[in-house]
Amino acid sequence: MRSTPEAGPFRQDILNAATAGMAHAPAREMLLRHRAAGWTRDRMYAELASMAVAAPEHEDYLHDLMDFVSGYCSLAMRIFD
């Protein structure tokens, strides 16, 4: 059974991307790497939602990433099927 990945590296990657203003396509690739490491849709979405509350200066960016995770975006940008 695969162990649950720690939130620390995920949060740091996302905050670094938000702070740097990383374009959405590379940020999506980063989310795909975390999915491959064992992150589920629900856990990823919950973590991004928590981060949006904790870092309001990055709220819009984090909401865009939440859309990729939830599937509320174009088919090409979805993280999960």
Q: How many strand units?
A: 0
- The SS-based structural class is mainly alpha
Counted by DSSP, the helix tally is: 4
Please give the radius of gyration in angstroms.
12 Å
State the end-to-end distance.
Answer: 22 Å
Residues in helices, as a percent range: 55-70%
Note the beta-strand portion: under 5%
Mean pLDDT score:
91
Low-confidence stretches: none
Could you give a short account of the major beta sheet? none
* SSE run: HHHH
Shape designation: globular
Describe this protein's structure.
The protein has 81 residues and is mainly α. The protein has a domain at 25-77. The chain is built from four helices and no strands. The protein has helices spanning 7-20, 24-36, 41-54, 59-70. Helix 2 (24-36) packs across helix 4 (59-70).
Question: What would you say about this model in short?
Answer:
With 81 residues, this protein is mainly alpha-helical. Helices cover 65% and strands 0% of the residues. The model has no long low-confidence stretch (mean pLDDT 91).
SSE map:
Blueprint: H1 7-20, H2 24-36, H3 41-54, H4 59-70
Distinctive features:
mainly alpha, globular
